[in-house]
Design brief:
Blueprint lengths: L4 E4 L2 E4 L7 E5 L5 H10 L5 E5 L11 H17 L4 E4 L2 H6 L1 H7 L5 E3 L1 H11 L2 E6 L1 H6 L1 H9 L4 E6 L3 H6 L6 H16 L4 E5 L7 H7 L5 E3 L1 H16 L11 E4 L3 H12 L5 E3 L2 H4 L4
Parallel strand pairs: 3-4, 3-5, 4-11, 5-6, 7-8, 7-9, 9-10, 11-12
Antiparallel strand pairs: 1-2
Helix pairs in contact: 1-11, 5-7, 5-11
Length: 285
């Protein structure tokens, strides 16, 4: 065992090694689209998933609340030996990532916004973003896109009804199509050529969205690109897992049953989900 230690956000711990897990978190089940992409691109990595279901939705929370929630989750991830953490949540990525990267300088933390923004400008110049209202209000995607390409044009729409409709299994409901049409119309009026899923839930709406926008519009799923970024970062840090991966561990802060049902539906397999209290479990080493 490597007995060197490093300070991770106030925790002293052994330096990470390749066999340690990658942590992913979201306010709920949306981040499972990122998890699924990690399975596809990084099948040898052990994964640890936390859904903060007791405190969702994050989209209606203040920035100070989100930052505090993320600190608690990161402390828990560090205590469970995460070698890297992926914010599989656009709202957290938009409102907290810069703050916590400064507070946890030795923990690689990836968000979904910059990888998604970078991919979008490689595909088009008239870019639409659909997201939660909090992510839209943060202007994070616009800022990230313009940092990569100042000549790009960006339009953002907050879509408050999408997440509840997806979690209620109403993707094929005519009402969902009507809501999607109303959200997308301002972007269609701007003749966008690229559309970013600015919420990890939204890839589930692909059939609906693609039936509304012209076939020439390119879709960007940030989950695909954050998984690529994770693979590159692990390579740079020498932290790729050289052993067989451990089974994914799932934890939630609320009732595990709804999460378990959606996880089974979206991942296509049964999952064991453990309910935890962050304040009580952060002392685990």
């Amino acid at each position: 065992m490597n007995m060197e230690v490093s300070n991770f956000g106030g925790f002293l711990r052994d330096l990470p090694n390749g066999s340690d897990p990658i942590g992913l978190f979201d306010s709920g089940v949306g981040g499972l689209t990122v998890l699924r992409e990690m399975y596809r691109q990084l099948p040898n990595e052990s994964l640890l998933y936390f859904g903060d279901t007791a405190r969702l939705p994050y989209g209606t929370r203040s920035q100070s609340e989100i930052i505090q929630f993320v600190r608690e989750i990161l402390d828990w991830m560090v205590a469970h030996r995460a070698k890297m953490v992926i914010m599989a949540c656009n709202t957290s990525s938009a409102l907290a990532i810069e703050t916590v990267r400064q507070e946890y300088p030795n923990l690689p933390i990836l968000g979904v916004i910059l990888p998604g923004a970078s991919a979008a400008v490689r595909q088009g110049r008239r870019i639409g973003v659909i997201s939660t209202p909090a992510t839209a209000a943060s202007d994070a995607y616009r800022q990230a896109i313009l940092e990569v390409d100042p000549t790009a044009e960006v339009w953002q729409v907050g879509c408050p009804e999408f997440v509840p409709l997806i979690e209620q299994g109403r993707i094929d409901d005519p009402y969902t199509h009507k809501v999607a049409q109303s959200y997308l119309q301002p972007l269609l009026d701007q003749e966008i050529d690229t559309l970013i899923y600015g919420c990890t839930h939204y890839p589930h709406l692909a059939p609906v969205l693609k039936s509304i926008v012209p076939s020439s519009v390119q879709f960007v799923d940030p989950a695909v690109h954050v998984a690529k970024a994770a693979a590159q970062e692990l390579e740079i840090l020498g932290l790729r897992n050289q052993r067989s991966p451990m089974p994914t561990r799932f934890y939630v802060s609320g009732d595990p049953k709804p999460f378990m049902q959606l996880a089974q539906q979206w991942l296509g397999c049964n999952t064991i989900v453990t309910q935890i209290s962050l304040s009580e479990s952060v002392a685990v080493s």
